[in-house]
Design goal:
This protein folds into two domains: 154 residues, Medium-chain alcohol dehydrogenases, catalytic domain (Quinone Oxidoreductase, Chain A, domain 1, Alpha-Beta Complex); 144 residues, NAD(P)-binding Rossmann-like Domain (Rossmann fold, 3-Layer(aba) Sandwich). It has eleven helices and 15 strands. The strands form three sheets. Strands 3, 4, 5, 6, 7, 14 and 15 form a seven-stranded mixed sheet that branches.
Length: 333
């Protein structure tokens, strides 16, 4: 096994959990060697996700003890492939999607099962930003929502990285896509991703949805917001509609009366895209192959709205926490 030339590398380290990122600092760490079934990657770009913010605060379901390096998805080059790793080799351009973190660094060790080759038409930043958004859209619309051509899809949070991927995939599947957002800038971002129509979120959201669907309602709702948005969406579903619960960025977890499900023959469906692949490795691997093929075809194309060098990683986390960015935020090495 070839040892890496660099004996140390720079990483963004959470040394102390804090609500304001005051415990997140740059540190030089010793370069590790990968164990059996592991891969050492020279990271070229890492994409942020909201769990990265929660990890630094100790508010995520996975709670590593400090010190640790956050970052759940990266793209880079294989430096060393550990014993038993055959599907990638040193020099290969790869993506890593890991639940253990470690991507916000110039080097990372990843489980080989979480590493796969990059689609050829994505750059480093796009490849880093592809996996989480793509797999969430795929599992939501295809595995859980069973979206069909000709149906109407409503996407909330459509200007975020996952929302934009869902808009792109919904349009590719032949649905009429309606996207929502809270500002003209976010609505324009959703339209640029392929939404046929856009709606600004407000107190009349249910009526607005029914208006643009001629009173019929929507067949599938992709909801990362919850709260009032969930309430309005439930009441704007068409007969046989499906409401996909993906997250609760709005803060309030909504209640629901079961008789409403019966009256309109509708379904409320939970989506945990990461857990989907862990529970069924065969279906999970197939979903990853599918989203990578869609990226190679140009169907899924991450929108990068902000890029920060690693030295400004804390600023990137602050922007992620503010929720004001469109598309994905990427830290480049």
């Amino acid at each position: 096994m070839t040892h890496p030339a660099e004996s140390t590398y720079t990483a963004l380290v959470v040394e102390q959990l804090s609500p304001d990122f005051s415990g997140v600092v740059l540190r030089d760490l010793d370069t590790p060697m990968p164990g059996p079934g592991e891969v050492l990657i020279r990271v070229r770009a890492a994409a942020l996700n909201f769990p990265d913010v929660l990890l630094t605060q100790g508010n995520y379901q996975f709670k590593p003890n400090p010190p640790f390096v956050p970052g759940l998805e990266a793209a880079g080059e294989v430096v060393v492939a550990g014993e038993g790793v055959a599907h990638v080799k040193p020099g290969d351009a790869v993506m890593a999607q890991t639940r253990q973190g470690g991507a916000l660094a110039r080097m990372m060790v990843a489980d080989a099962k979480e590493v796969r080759r990059m689609p050829p038409n994505l750059d480093w930043a796009e490849a880093a930003a592809h996996s989480v958004a793509g797999i969430t859209a795929y599992v939501s619309l295809i595995e859980r929502g069973r979206l069909e051509a000709g149906e109407t899809l409503l996407v909330h949070g459509a200007s975020g990285g996952t929302g934009m991927a869902t808009v792109q995939l919904g349009r590719h599947l032949g649905a009429r896509v309606i996207a929502t957002g809270r500002s003209p800038e976010k609505l324009e971002a959703a339209r640029s991703a392929g939404a046929h129509e856009v709606l600004q979120v407000g107190p009349n959201l249910k009526d607005d949805i029914l208006r643009v669907t001629d009173g019929e309602g929507v067949d599938v709702v992709f909801d990362t917001v919850g709260g009032d948005v969930f309430d309005a969406s439930l009441r704007a579903l068409a007969w046989g509609g499906r409401l996909l619960v993906v997250g609760f960025l709005g803060g309030r977890i909504a209640d629901m009366k079961s008789n409403y499900l019966l009256i309109k023959n509708i379904s409320v469906i939970g989506v945990r895209a990461g857990e989907f692949g862990r529970r069924d490795s065969v279906k999970g691997a197939n979903a990853l192959r599918e989203i990578d093929a869609l990226a190679a075809q140009g169907v899924l194309k991450p929108h990068i709205s902000a890029r920060f060098p690693l030295e400004e990683g804390v600023q990137a986390l602050r922007l992620m926490a503010a929720g004001s960015a469109t598309g994905k935020i990427v830290v480049t090495m």
